[in-house]
Amino acid sequence: MPSTFIKTFDTPAYKGTVTIPLGLYINGEFVDPVEGGTIDVVNPATGKVVTSIAAGTKADIDIAAKAAKKAYKTSWGLKVPGAQRGKLMSKLAVLMEEHIAEFAALDALANGKAYNTAYSRDNKGAIAVMEYYAGWADKISGKTIETNENKLAYTRHEPIGVVGQIIPWNVPMFSLSLKIAPALATGNTIVLKPSELTPLSALLFCTLVEEAGFPPGVINVVNGYGPTAGQAISEHPLIEKVAFTGSTLTGRKIMEAAAKSNLKPVTLELGGKSPNIIFDDADLEQAVKWAIHGIYFNHGQNCSAGSRIFVQEGIYDKFLDQFTEQARAIKVGDPFSPDTYQGPQVSKTQFERIMGYITSGQNDGATVHLGGKQIGQEGYFIEPTIFTECQPNMKIVREEIFGPVACVLKFKTEDEVVEQANDTLYGLAASVFTKDIDRAIRVAHALEAGTAWINCANQTEISMPFGGFKQSGIGRELSEYALENYTNVKAVHVNIGIRL
Questions:
Q1: How do strand 266-269 and strand 24-26 relate by DSSP bridges?
Q2: Which of 165, 275, 314, 423 could form a disulfide with 179 if both were Cys (CB 3.0 to 4.6 A apart)?
Q3: Separation in Å, CA 298 to CA 294, 331, 420
């Protein structure tokens, strides 16, 4: 039997006790992994181990895939009307709401993000996504196609079957809901691997699945490392589609494994190096505030972070002064302190990666205008950092840092900045700040990105799609568009009068 994690929180932000099993959730129950093994979960605020969870491998993915396949054929999929699927999802959303404080506490503990952010943004968002797709479950429909009087022709949007899903650590519960909700709404069964860094909230979620009334095998959650459990999901023959959020490098590996196994379709939400363009006529006060939010929200650990800030020369100095002042005022500290905006980076590996980029920027000749150092001796805290005197060929300008590091660059003309903004392998998001609506729309249309924000940054709407151009991914999440990732379209031709 899997062990149990019991954690009593006595913090200014949250007081309470959370109890979760530490095993793998397969076929409606928590089980030990076939090959044994554990993964340490570390509190990034202290660098100390919180607990150890079960580590699944290829053998466990195989068991989970078989359980999901059986559930798809017998108790889910086309066996369950969309209205019934929607009711179960709505019940699950209610249960998530009842436990939202616990979810937020677990994410703050394992991820290091501010509890208030985990509560109000991540988990509120996760619940809203589940509710949104619960409403879609009975609205999956095809079309009747006009051909001729001797034929009835129509399409059916059918579930794919067993889908594999691999989610990241930066927004654990929001990512889980983004993947699971549209898959459930369309009638698929699921084998999901949470990040090995932040698995605790996913395990708490599993305790609610049976309570909500889902049949065994519909939702399976297997903790594990990417090269073992993640790879097994990508190449398993019973898994007929895989969805992944994470790095572009790993996305390539998943595509390769999917192609070599059963040519399963793949959707990918990958990296970004988003430009934030601020013209001379922008509302400077608002542009500064949004730029702060764009890069430093979630400690910079955000795929759409506005890490390249292009400022037109007429307001460059004023912008830099105000941006620096607000970055310096960011409260970095204990995730459970009510006034904390930025906690630690998620892990020692991520901390060292970010510090390596800061060193690279200095070696390449960029100026550390603010920050650039570790805060304290315990945990993985990094000062909000601003680089100036940046050149387009520098690593800090071209590569995704995924941390609280901003590059501020000066530009002269609209054509110049559009060219610089598009000079990247990525294309996830972009922001434009100007009071000229013609320019705003013109530039937004010219930018090579899946999302363009005008006079704002890092804003999502559940009813709007999110995804990337170029090496930022394939497919879309959120909105009605996400449903397309989880259905096959079948064309049905009915002969009602044609004779050969």
A1: unpaired
A2: 165
A3: 10, 12, 26
CA 287, 334, 199 angle in degrees (round to 5)?
95
Give pLDDT, residue 497: 79
pLDDT tens, residue by residue, 231-285 = 999 999 999 999 999 999 999 999 999 999 999 999 999 999 999 999 999 999 9
Helix (H, G, I), strand (E, B) or coil at 347: coil
Tokens 């909700």 found at: 181
Active site residues: 269, 303
Q: Which two tokens stand for residue 419?
A: 């060219």
pTM of the entire predicted model: 0.95
Strand-strand pairing, 241-245 and 162-166? parallel
Compute CA distances 72 → 29, 199, 258, whole Å.
Answer: 17, 25, 21
Are 191 and 220 a contacting pair, CB within 8 Å?
yes
Q: Measure the CA–CA gap between 15 and 339, rounded to whole angstroms.
A: 16
Phi/psi class of residue 300: alpha, beta or left (left: φ > 0; alpha: ψ in -120 to 50)? left
Q: Name 245's bridge partners.
A: 269
Residue type, 80: V
Single-letter residue type at 403: G
